[in-house]
Amino acid sequence: MLYTVKEVAELSKVTVKLLHHYHRIGLLIPTEISGAGYRLYGTEALERLQQILLYRELDFTLEQIKELLQGNPDRSTILEEQEKRIQQRKQRLERIIETLHKTKTSRERGEPMEDKELFKGFEREEDWKAALQEQNEYLKETYDYELLDSAPVEPQHMNEIALEGAAFMTSMADGLRTGRKHNDVAVAALIGRHLEFLKEHGHQISAEDFAAQA
């Protein structure tokens, strides 16, 4: 079965623009191009896209992913290595989640965290920059926007933003599962609180711009 680029985007939860970019750089070539010029993708292309997305989750750059997938390496070997890396990342994320919960509790109580507890999971500024590298690369390629500029990355500040982001996404997902629509009053209130939080933390964004990014 062959899928159009729009169908692949819906299936894989990536944008059509990103699939076009992968095609342009030779990372993901369509199975065939129709007589009308439409990109069509078969099973092998979908499996390759899965591998690409798994490597992206592991913070590999697109150039590194391209090199890793050259020559059509054995898929089972790739999946085994990716599973191993993801398990390692899971353990690290569990430490980060623990730090985030402690950060939230300390804010609610108005008590500062102990220095040794503050940076568990992200011990250095460089750790945050490494974690944001893939997102920075995507924004630079897609929107010509540099996320990681010369400004320092403050771990506690980033922990608070990450905690708010995780809570926001969880609440949005819960709302969708219960059948709430995008124009529901509760959804609008949730987005409003999230935008206010971002504003308080130095990220000015309008509701219109936020909706365009969603």
Q: What does this 3D model show about the protein?
A:
- With 214 residues, the chain is mainly α.
- The protein contains ten helices and three strands; from the N terminus they run E-H-H-E-E-H-H-H-H-H-H-H-H.
- The chain has helices spanning 5-12, 16-24, 43-57, 62-68, 75-109, 115-118, 125-143, 155-177, 185-200, 207-213, and strands at 3-4, 32-33, 39-41.
- It has a three-stranded antiparallel β-sheet with strand order 1-3-2.
- Helix 3 (43-57) crosses helix 5, helix 5 crosses helix 8 and helix 8 packs antiparallel against helix 9.
- The relative contact order is 0.07.
- The model has no long low-confidence stretch (mean pLDDT 76).
- This is MerR family transcriptional regulator.
- InterPro entries: DNA-bd_dom_put_sf, MerR-type_HTH_dom, MerR_fam.
- Residues 2-71 form the HTH merR-type domain.
- Keywords: Coiled coil, DNA-binding.
- Residues 76-103 form a coiled coil.
Shape: globular
Contiguous helical run count: 10
Describe the biggest sheet?
3 strands, antiparallel
Unreliable residue runs: none
Cα-based radius of gyration, to the nearest Å: 20 Å
How much beta, percentage-wise? under 5%
Keywords: Coiled coil, DNA-binding
InterPro entries: DNA-bd_dom_put_sf, MerR-type_HTH_dom, MerR_fam
Organism: Paenibacillus phytohabitans
Protein name: MerR family transcriptional regulator
